[in-house]
Each structure stands twice: as C-alpha cells, then as structure tokens.
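Appendix B. One record, verbatim.
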Amino acid sequence: MADFAGVDPHRVRLLANALKDLAEALNKNGATIRSNFSEWGGSLNLGQLASQSAQVGDDARDMSLRADEAQNLLSQSQGVVLCTPSGDWVSIPWNVKDIDTTKEAQQEAATLKKALDNPKDPKSRNTITEIAQSLSDHQGDSAYMTAFLLSGGLTDAAKVATALHDEDGTHDGVVLSKDSERILGQFGQATQIMSGLAVKGNYPHPAPDYLAALTSPPGGDMWSVGMLFKYGPGGDQWDPKVLSDVGGAMLDWRARQKAMRPSYSSPDFPYSAGGYVGKDDGGWYHSLGLDPDYLTHGADENDRIAAGIRANDPALAVISRLGENAQASRDLLGNDDDASKRFAKELVDFKWQTPGETTQDDSDAVRRVLTLAATDRSAANRDQSGLAAANILAAAAQQKDVFDGRNGFEKDEYKTYPKGTAIALAGITATWADDLGGTSASATGGLPSYDSNDHDLVSKDSDVVKVMQLFAKDDTDAAVMFDTTLHQQVSDALSNSSPSEQLTRLGNAAGLFTKAKVGISYTQAQQVDEDHKFNLALLNTAGSLFGYIPGPKAANGETLTGMAKVVEKGLKYSQNLVTMGRSIVAPNTDPFSTNNAAKQEALNQAQARDQFKTFAPSIAQGLIRSGKIPPPADRSWYDPTTGTVSVDPRNHSDFDGWWNTVNEKQQYIASFQGGFDNSEGSVDGK
C-alpha cells in the first residue's frame, strides 16, 4: 500500500477483532462448511479454505499490531497530529516488521506508569486496557517484552490490580469486575514472560533486581502481585525461580499478617445470631473494603464478604501456582537453610482454613506443594526432595505441639488439622518410610534431617510418631493415604536387591504408625473406617496409579525381576500422589461402611499387635510382581493386567486360603514382623 490513509486507532482495533473472530470461526467450522457444501452439491471450490483460515489469522495478528502502534502514537501526541516537528508524516507502516517495537514498548511503559499513578483519571482505565491488549499482542516479541521489562514493566504490572480495584470498588464481596479479571489475565501473561526474561538475564548488565518488583512490590502491595498469578497462566508455564522467589516472599508476608481470616462467632440463640467478626482485627482484607461484622451486616452479606476474603487471598493464589510446578516446589523447600525451614513451618500451619458454621479447608494448594517438593526420589532429585522432606517433617513435628496447644477460641474455630496438609504429610511420611523406619531405630537426637552423603532421611522415632499423630488424628482419609502408600512400598520392596532388609525397615514404620494411633486414642471404629477406605482406595485408585509401567528405571538400587515393573519414585510418582490425594475420600457404601467413628471402642493392645497382618496382600503382590511366586489363576482379588492384589471384606477369606498355600512367604513375613515388633512399644502408645 503506497497511499496514505487516515486511521482511527479504535476502528483499527475493531477491524483486528473482527478478523480474529473470522479466523476463529473458520478454524472451528471449516470442516462443517466443507461437509455441508459437499452434501448440498455446491459448486464452490472450498479446497483452499484451510489455508485461507491461516491467512486470516495472520491478518488479524498484523492488524492488532497496527492498532497497538496507532494507539501508542495517539497517546504520545496527546491528540491528532499529522506530522512530526520536523515536518515528516506520522505513519503506521503497513508492513508490521517495520514497526520499532522496542521504542513502542518504551513509550507504552511510560504511558502505563502515568495511568497507574492516577487511577481515578477518567482516561486511566482505557489506557490500562489498551496496553494490556498490546502486551497480549506482543507476547511472542522478545524485543518488545525485554524493552517493556527494562522500562519498569514488572513494577508497573505489580500495581495494576490495585489500580483496577480503585476504579471498580467493592460490591457484595466482589473487588474486581469481570473486565478487570480479563485485563489481569493479560498482565499476568506478560508478567510470566517478563519475569522469565529477568531470570535469563538477556539484557545489558549491570541490571537491577527486576524480580524485586514481585517480591518487594511498591508499598508492600502483595495482594496486587498475587492477582497476577491468580488470573495469569498456570504454574507449569512460570520459571521455577520466579515461583519459588515470589512464593517465599508471599509466605513471609503471610507470617507477618495479624489475621488471614476473620474470626467466626458461633450462634448463641436467642442472644446472638453469630457470624464473622473482623472489624478491628487488622486483617489485610480491610484495604479492599472487605469488612466482616455480623453486628453491622446481614448474615448473607457477611457470608459474601467472607467468601470474598477467601477468593482474594494472595497467598493462596501464588501457592496454588507453585503447586503446579514441581521444580519450584523443591526450590522453595529443598534447601538446608533457614529460609526453606521457615517456609515449611508456614505451610504446615493449622490455619490454612476458613472458620465458619462449616470450616472450609484451604490447604489443597499446600498439599500439592508439599507433595511435589518432597516425594521425588529419582536420582536427579532425591537429595533436594530429601531435604524438603526433612524440613517439612521437622516443621510438622513442631506443629504438633502448636496444634495441641491451641487456646479455647482457636479450638472452636479450628477443630481439626487441615485435611489437605494432613494428606500431604501422610504421603510424604509413607514415601520415605524405609528411611524413617531404618534410621528411627537408632537416631536419638535433633529434628528430622537429611544426610546428603548417604542419601538418607534421618529422624528419631518420637518425631515420626508426632507427625503421624498430627495427620491421623480425626482424619481417617489421611491415614488411608499413609496406608495405601506404605502398602505400595511394601509391595515394591520385594523387587529390591535386599528385600528382607527393606521389609524390616518398612515393618518398623508400620509399627510406629500403630504406636501413633494408640497414642492418640485411635478408636476401633476409626480403624474400621480406615481399613474400609483403604480397601476402596486400593481397589479404585492405587491399583491404577501405582500399577507397573513398562520400562521404568530402578530406583535406589532396586533390581527389577519377573513381572516387577515398579514405578520409579520420580515426578510421575509425585504426580500420582497429588492425584490420589485429591480423591482419597472413600464413598460410604456397603460393604465398606465408613460411619463407624461415631462409636468409641478403644483399639486394644491385642488388635494393635495384629496390625502387621494387614500387609499380607501387599507382600503377596510384591512376590507375584517380582516373579518369586506364580500368579494365582481366576481369583476375584487379583488383576493379571496390572499385577494388583485388591482384597476386600467380600473376598478376604478366599485370599487367606490361597495365601496359606504359599510357602515362600515365611522369610518375608518374618522380616516385616521383625521390624514391626521392634516398635512393640507401639501397642501402649509410649
């Protein structure tokens, strides 16, 4: 195009959007269009429809870039200007490759800063919206994104959520409009790209600490930072260093808060209807206009305010993204330093919950972070995961005392330990059960630690028991997580080069768990619930999640023989634990009724001593998979496809009859029972 034409940036944007809609429609409906024309006997040649769809998509992207440049030039001129001071025409190149995107980014960053400094200006929102779109259009342009970063882009992005909130206000617990959420999604995507560039450092040096804009934002506004992660891309797309750095800063911010959630006052009829109270608690949420007070607001409005607080928790937003990135989770917790220990302490805090008439568990993101950080025992990540496990278990052992020492009001608001955190602790403890069962037999002092020389997780038995009591008390689902994972470890041990030694260690861990349950007055009814849920978990979940996968690497010196194809305890294993932890709750259906915990029969010593017998199916499974015994034929409790033994109350007698004929089992049962009996003090809980 050689001719000049006047343009309205807004109209150019409308044209770009129309082209984008057309491209999406052609891509979505192209096959249907061709099929219908073929059926109708149409004479049009639709052979080039696919290539035309791609061309329209390219045209839409180019038109978007022209719209960005047109709007930028208009912003720089503060109005309509036809020429520069030197008399040259102000032109928008038709060929988008001729646009100086570095200069454009620098100019847009300056324009954005002005808009953010004056959020109440009527033009501010339009400017923020236009630059959000430009950032989205240029996300594949590293020159543009680098220039925006160097021009203070991360610092500006960290202010956007608060500026939009200032314009939106707070209404019925909602602090951001849907349009603001969309804009934050675009700035979140840009932040992910710019922060990744900041880590790589592909720009002139020396340079400032660009990530400080996210870890120590202007005015300490971590809420605004958190919203970039909440509405931005998934955690797997972020650079691990960015997530671990911001995650650590967010946990430190959380630890400094006077209140993360408002208090809840239970109804006391006829004197008080009860509800959320937090008018003078100094909580972070008051700056957003979220002021819970049942004396001022009606019950419904007060509940909406509380829901708004939970939905806008910046710590939850960042930790949720962190829990989608295994390396970032390990980097946060897997270091032998005060920071990782501090972060572990904050993550196992019992207050990752929202009090109320029904307490809401907010710890699912925490569960994912802890699990991903501490359960990858592959050669590449064993030491870092081991350090993470040590930091987590040490923090959990200390948290047991904190949780038991809640004051009366805290006991009313936080009746139980967070389920997500409990399930994570159960999975981590069982994953390292061989180390814990081995070292706890001799370790005498200090909190759990990791020996990087011998690659062992070390803990004295009393700390292991405290962690077990923390996750198992009042939560049979967490106990099921430990049981299911430990049973799988027992099965895998039969394929180890030293199966008897491994079984002795695991038997000791099983004995410690029984000790823990007796020590917290675990009832017979709870044990019934746990057993039934374990049967369902194994039947419905564990068989497929932990089922053997062709061709894995052997972990920690394991020798795989016969049918044994044990899942390497690496990333896939960690992801399996995350998946299983999400769905570990068993349905309350016969013959696995799980409502027995209303009863109060005590788990007596004789029953406790018999707990090791429940591992017979797992030992049988390991013997079959390792090729030490032939698989049974035509048994309802055995799946020959996965080599999984799933025994339940309906077929246990059939399994017991078969098991009695297996002579090879004796040495392995003896090894496991020997380890279990080494913790024989378990039966009195002392």
